[in-house]
Write the structure tokens for this entry.
Amino acid sequence: MTTSSLAHLYSKSACCAVPSAIREISKLVDLPEMKSLAGGWPDPAVFPAEDIRRIATEQLSKNADQVLQYGTTEGLVDLRRELAKLAGRRYGIKCTADHILLTHGAAQGMDLACRVMIDPDDVVLVGLPTYFGGTGSIMACCGELLGVEIDDDGINTHQVADHLRVLKNSGKRAKGIYVIPNFQNPTGATLSRKRRKHLIELAATYDLVIFEDDPYGDLRFEGDHLPSLMALDTAGRVIHMRSMSKTFAPGLRVAWIIGQADVVRKMVVAKQFVDVATNTLAQYILLEFISSGLLEKRIELNNQYYKRKRDFMLEQLETHFPAEVQWNRPAGGFFIFVKLPDAMDASELLTDAVKHNVAFVAGAPFFIDQSGKNTFRLSYSQSSEAVIEAAVAELGKLIKKRVIIKNA
Ligand SMILES: Cc1ncc(COP(=O)(O)O)c(C=O)c1O
């Protein structure tokens, strides 16, 4: 086909959007010989495939007229009612079906939230580092990003307060803050209770919206669940995004947002022009899966399963990584975040590792200021113990070689 460039006609939004580094690395991970600790995908071994097959068959035999039909943009009302009950029971969030919108993944939830809330040049505070799906949605609306340090207690809210003060004095509009409160991607860090409360106070003082992205919250292996930001907020400033991708099946692309009714209505209008409605069959399957109690049983089983994997990876790190390397011990989720000595570059290590058929995700793409060059993310979720052991051992060897050269 002969083509002439249309680049000069691209929209501002298309020019603001940047590709995801994770999607790029997925191509590598697909190679059969690759021992990958890269993808933050769930392990297919715990997909509830049998239950999904049974429910789908039942639905298609009894209810085909409805399950193959378009649905409303908001999502099935029975499912939204069931999700409202689940939100009260598990997350301490008081809401009704009117506060809920079904989406194709939390990724779509964040995209719609940004369409509704972010104007070009609005500033949104994000973690250093943070998941680039979140920053990507903000950038696609031409929002401006401002980074805030993340430590073991999650995003540093004192630094958030400093940034907000400076921004206000310079006459700039901070619109919001993007937070992954539980077992954050990529650090595995959980926002402390104290900081959760502080964030809510700051949002009220500076008139902000909080984008609370919580796809990992159900995956807690130990300790008590902390209240969600939405449960602590009495002013309706939080848009709470949940996903079924990590506890059910990401391929079905079902997720949901909770927000105040007016905000949800705005997001419904935005979704009408994106994809009209969320997959109807997937919603009926999820409705049955939740209402029959299978989801909560599945969450318990998954947590035992992923806890074993986390413990196994931590043991392997202790065995194979040299003393110069640091990492955290997440209380849940899928990720361990590794810090190499300052002068080492994790993307150079990755290039080397790929030659030895080992993959991980270098940390720098998660940092909007391009810092974090000496960091990388390991995921224990998807790989077998054999792969985790072999990959960590290989990485340990490669890191030790670099440490020796650096110290020579
Ligand atoms: C923090 C975070 N938010 C959102 C998503 C997207 O999830 P979904 O599959 O629901 O779109 C991911 C996926 O890895 C994630 O890590």
